[in-house]
Amino acid sequence: MDWAAYSLAGAGVAVLVFAAWALSVVRADVSLVDSLWSLMFLALAGGYAGQVGVGGPRGWLVLILVAAWALRLSIYITWRNHGEGEDRRYQAIRANNDPGFWWKSGFIVFGLQAVLAWLIAMPLAVAVGSPEPLGWLDAAGVALWGLGMVFEVIGDAQLARFRANPDNRGKVLDTGLWRFTRHPNYFGEFTLWWGYFLLAAAGGGWWTIGAPVLMSVLLLRVSGVSLLEKDIGERRPAYAEYIRRTNAFFPGPRRSAA
Q1: Is the previous residue joined to 166 through a cis bond, with omega within 30 degrees of 0?
Q2: Higher-confidence residue: 152 or 92?
Q3: Interhelix angle for 184-202 vs 210-217, to 10°?
């Protein structure tokens, strides 16, 4: 991998993130970083490709997959958050870091996510620049990516439809994919990133395994499942029963109520 080119692509993302942070200060709402998150990866992959060129079919394949994932996720989150105000997670961070959150957010929210994106996107850069011919490992990677996208797209659609029905206020979605895992969208993200890794590994990038591991830790222990469920039982009592019956992350059959 060309580290100079990858660092320059990271600098381009830093400019994008700085502009988004400035807008968040004006709006007093840092939630827009969620819409920007997936676009950082597209910018890193595209910026790297623009400098070193696309190595071959694998590179074009990865660029297409990243674009499809990043644009879909960014558009969905932007639509979901429109008119909702700042997410309660960021409200808590704001309360814990006032006074001066407006400038602190540039580091603890926007800057941190930019650094994480730069670390996690390394398999994408390796795959984009790889001249190796496609093989069975690429097929496995695409299959994992496809499974992840299915869980993300269907899970998001089922949740959006559930929330749009006023009769479901205060209830817990436990049908569809949500019957088998409490977080089908996070499981989809997990699976998708291991698919990217396999594509990189097929191009000689086995050393990038730390990227999907880091993403897995974030999803399971940091900003994903753990953060979302930190106090959800207090806010939604019915969720406690849902937790007892339904797997947290990896899909599986429902447990008995006993």
Answers
A1: no
A2: 152
A3: 170
Tell me the C-alpha distance between 200 and 221, whole Å.
Answer: 25
Q: What is the pLDDT of residue 16?
A: 96
In sequence order, which residues have a C-beta less than 8 Å from that of residue 105 and are 6 or more positions away? 21, 24, 25, 30, 93, 94, 97
Contact 9, 124 (CB under 8 A): no
Question: Is the model's pLDDT at 133 over the cut of 90?
Answer: yes
* Confidence check: pLDDT of 258 > 60: no
- The CA-atom distances, in angstroms, between 108 and each of 97, 113, 246 are 10, 8, 33
Classify the C-alpha dihedral 145-221-12-9 as positive or negative.
negative
242: pLDDT strictly greater than 70:
yes
